[in-house]
């Protein structure tokens, strides 16, 4: 029986330093029925050239280029639009998967009829592996409002159950917005408690903690349209959870 196709969604912007490692981690998956859809968000480095080298060698790897820079959410949405797979998986251009990531996660989803899953992951700084982030066994809409426990590089959803779901058109926190939208349709997202991905913490917005907090507040107010009181409540929970995560 043929394994279902997995569409891997990868946004890229000036990602020449790490994108080859990210692509290689998909190519080396023990689960081989995948397509990798990379949308470049108008990079001005060698990102596109690197991707073209891979796509010329492997027809499963496809490059798309945004007409103008629109942010990671716009880039991801373009790849989702092009996706042909039953399962939609996410991997950023500076992160990596371990070889057994897809085969283990897809097996769990099919065995238990889970429409939305995620996994544990390990932080990476430079060439050094850091703490393993172990999320709860599951999360719900209300739980997720208090803190995004779903690492984008680990999330997979089933279009056979949910249809295609897109990220909200906001510059930051698009992934959390998508997870919350999905959790309006399914009661829970389930976690495979095994670190199957490597999350880079020394690049991009990951480094700017105050900027993250600012965008989180705006996310609650503008995207989720919560009152000031409810925003304050969930923001306090978010800050507490973020501190615990940072200290690991």
Largest β-sheet summary: 10 strands, mixed
Name the shape in a single word: globular
Reading off the top of the CATH hierarchy, the class is best stated as: Alpha Beta
User: Are there runs of 5+ residues with pLDDT below 50, and where?
Assistant: none
Q: Measured on Cα atoms, how large is the radius of gyration?
A: 17 Å
CATH topology: Spore Coat Polysaccharide Biosynthesis Protein SpsA, Chain A
Counted by DSSP, the helix tally is 9
Proportion of residues in β-strands: 15-25%
Q: Can you tell me the CATH superfamily?
A: Spore Coat Polysaccharide Biosynthesis Protein SpsA, Chain A
Order of helices and strands: EHEHEHEEHEEEHEHHEHH
Question: Can you summarize this structure?
Answer:
This protein has nine helices and ten strands. By secondary structure, the chain is an alpha/beta fold. It has one domain: Alpha-Beta Complex (Spore Coat Polysaccharide Biosynthesis Protein SpsA, Chain A), CATH 3.90.550.10.
Topology:
Blueprint: E1 6-12, H1 19-27, E2 34-40, H2 47-57, E3 61-65, H3 72-82, E4 87-90, E5 96-97, H4 101-112, E6 116-125, E7 128-133, E8 138-139, H5 141-145, E9 156-158, H6 159-162, H7 174-182, E10 189-200, H8 209-223, H9 228-247
Parallel strand pairs: 1-2, 1-4, 2-3, 6-10
Antiparallel strand pairs: 4-9, 5-10, 6-7, 6-9, 8-10
Helix pairs in contact: 8-9
